[in-house]
């Protein structure tokens, strides 16, 4: 089973013909609300890929919080360990123009109140986390998780050394990898290269690479999250490194073909036969 510890955000998107400059107002926007946050996206993906998944996080006492919980429940995620915080649900205010160029302001809200108090971890469960919750909490996970610990080091922030030493898997994109030289010493690192594919590095040495699966991209939002869920499930269920990379690439490719950050994936095994 898998526990995702991480962020839950309401994504509020205004699509306009062009992005406003500082001090400017642009009219004619189209508004949409959708579930997001790296933690919630990864939990939803993991559950849909077939892993027994629970999420540890926090939402605010508001309608966005209820909607985010409903989206996780619909994906099959166990939500009983998600706390109701006193601050508002985490929110990403997104502006997108006709070319898909965006500007995003994140208000962490309830995500700042995520806590591991009273949470028990068992040795046979994998834990997957990201850096949209406090680094102190990630350090606490490094101390307390007895089983497989995967850290998606996104957004790019310097990781506490104890986390780099303890993590069984660190997942980053090419940009994050370039920002975090400390990952050269990490035990196992997956680096994603968008439409080029992804690689696994052990102590800075590449041990496997897999080309991306060809896709017709609609939105790359959530592709990295789906990839993280798939790779963690693949590696912890015993797939060979290259096969796990290929399965995760196939899931990432499926994710870019839909607009939602929480797409309706099939079970992970269905992405495998296509590879053979
Ligand atoms: P992030 O979204 O975190 O920056 P990437 O863009 O590297 O991460 O995407 C994560 C993974 O999703 C890639 O390694 C790849 O497997 C898949 N992916 C992303 N973009 C594409 C694409 N255009 N075509 C096919 N697969 C893609």
TrEMBL record:
Compartments it resides in: Cytoplasm
Active site (UniProt): 225
GO terms under biological process: D-ribose catabolic process
Domain Carbohydrate kinase PfkB as annotated: residue spans: 2-263
Listed SUPFAM superfamilies: Ribokinase-like
Domain of life: Bacteria
GO molecular function: ATP binding; metal ion binding; ribokinase activity
Catalytic activity: D-ribose + ATP = D-ribose 5-phosphate + ADP + H(+)
Class of enzymatic activity (EC top level): transferase
Residues noted as binding K(+) in the record, renumbered to the chain: 221, 255, 258
Binding-site residues, ATP: 173, 192-197, 224-225, 249
Cofactor, free-text remark: Requires a divalent cation, most likely magnesium in vivo, as an electrophilic catalyst to aid phosphoryl group transfer. It is the chelate of the metal and the nucleotide that is the actual substrate.
GO cellular component, one term: cytosol
Cofactors, names only: Mg(2+)
Ligand binding (substrate): 9-11, 37-41, 132, 225
Pathway info: Carbohydrate metabolism; D-ribose degradation; D-ribose 5-phosphate from beta-D-ribopyranose: step 2/2
Region (Disordered): 21-40
Family per similarity comment: Belongs to the carbohydrate kinase PfkB family. Ribokinase subfamily. Belongs to the carbohydrate kinase pfkB family.
Subunit structure: Homodimer.
Function: Catalyzes the phosphorylation of ribose at O-5 in a reaction requiring ATP and magnesium. The resulting D-ribose-5-phosphate can then be used either for sythesis of nucleotides, histidine, and tryptophan, or as a component of the pentose phosphate pathway.
Protein name as annotated: Ribokinase
Recorded name of the encoding gene: rbsK
